[in-house]
């Protein structure tokens, strides 16, 4: 199934695996998706430059097909020291629950984006994608000089227009159904949680580069519907989360496979940035926090040890269980099977459409 | 374009006009949609039995095609007298702004659902649809004895399953993109704002009766995408709001035609029930209200005079401007044109699909 984007990225099928930072997108998953004809992607936002180089090499040992690397565009946090200290103190209740030391110093909170980007460029990958903003013109041009396809993420039409002006090759249109972090980077009067059905055609009418639909797409129905709406490909995350190759924690996979479509909500309680995940005791409890939640990446860094300890203790209620709204459609199977079954269903639907 | 639902409802095209209570769904609009081959629908939730009979007759003077009538299933409000009094007092600031008398008595707040339903049955209409719950088994059976097709509204899979068990003939799957009131009627741990792309296939996998997709559907792309996802028809509201035949206030139509996809949010500040509308000063201001917003229909009744006065004064900031997230796709045209252009685009897309 050829589209403008499959040609540009030299992939067989219009299926991109969402770059899921923090564990799920293992080299095995990325390579399996690319080997099956889609585009695998490393969620490298939290990785050091050395870890990025290492992960890329591990993927390359498993595939010679194109794949992508995703980074988070940094934004200077503006939270006051007082608000940070107050949250750090409040988090002690969860640290006690998780059995770790209370009142730790505020941790160092992010990798250098420039060094991460240099690592990506140094390893000759096919696709560089980014979220949370737009990299500097210098980085954008350097990526192009390296022959790398650049993909940005938009949650509104205005963001898509801005990304096209900045010179990206394609745009992920992230609908409100999508799991994980919201890619929003421009101010909006509302929460900018636009459903995929509404977002894709409106972006399609305002940009001329290929669009990748994301949010709630779990099978061939979602793929064909997205192409009809004006997309050239889809990005699927939740569908791959419970795959054999996914690095998601067993308890996390279990929740993905047993939760219903209304199990998620958007919260900034884990990282300081809005993200969609399965409801946990932590999210419910943090709804009533009276202070300000520190900006990303401060909150993310402050909650890291709690999440890690909860993970070791198999306690999902303190873990971040990022997931989209298509949960009832998640199945445990191999990543290649997901790509193949999605394509098979899509081909059948398209044939049937043509007959009507 | 035949589907399971067009056959059942004896309509030509799988396009239903959303029943928009409170003015937009005039007899002219309902008849124009039905005459064009879709299914027009009267939003009768706020009408008295006599007004319902009158409106149905006005539609029948304009069309002999099938059309529908929609009612709101009542639920006993549980708000305390104190909370109601506090809100009534708080609303005085808007009454002053709107130039009407302050501190009015708490108004009588709803029509009798049984009498409304009797009015519908007495007038021999083709379709009865309902929102906010499920009518009693007595009413459901009486509707069927009258040969009326019954359609319920679901925002989750669980609600859809419950509606099917109750014996409805079809289900509107209301995605989070949809404008106006949320049809949710079962408790959910979250806000149950599931995007159309995720909601439709998940409901399709759990019920065997026809599904009508709603939320963010504005043209042929949305129609075909919905059919691909498993729907037998679509329901479009925002697309018809700015039509020539719509009874929406001129100022309201103006906002529909000039707003962007991120202009709306879900609020219960107007009616006591969650509904999606274009952001106004009233919504923004009510975000900071410290008390409890009284349940529907109390809040609706208490804000009615304010909304009516704002409407007379052409002041949109105190009006309820219900709208979905497809706003950039709204155009000023006739209702028949909307049906025809949607069908034309849909046919073209389906032909192209079949060729790939």
TrEMBL record, chains A, B:
Protein's recorded name: Probable nitronate monooxygenase
GO biological process, one term: response to toxic substance
Job of this protein: Nitronate monooxygenase that uses molecular oxygen to catalyze the oxidative denitrification of alkyl nitronates. Acts on propionate 3-nitronate (P3N), the presumed physiological substrate. Probably functions in the detoxification of P3N, a metabolic poison produced by plants and fungi as a defense mechanism.
Top-rank lineage group of the source organism: Bacteria
Catalysed reactions, semicolon-separated: 3 propionate 3-nitronate + 3 O2 + H2O = 3 3-oxopropanoate + 2 nitrate + nitrite + H2O2 + 3 H(+)
Keyword tags: Detoxification, Flavoprotein, FMN, Monooxygenase, Nucleotide-binding, Oxidoreductase
Similarity annotation: Belongs to the nitronate monooxygenase family. NMO class I subfamily.
Cofactor entry: FMN
A molecular function GO annotation: nitronate monooxygenase activity
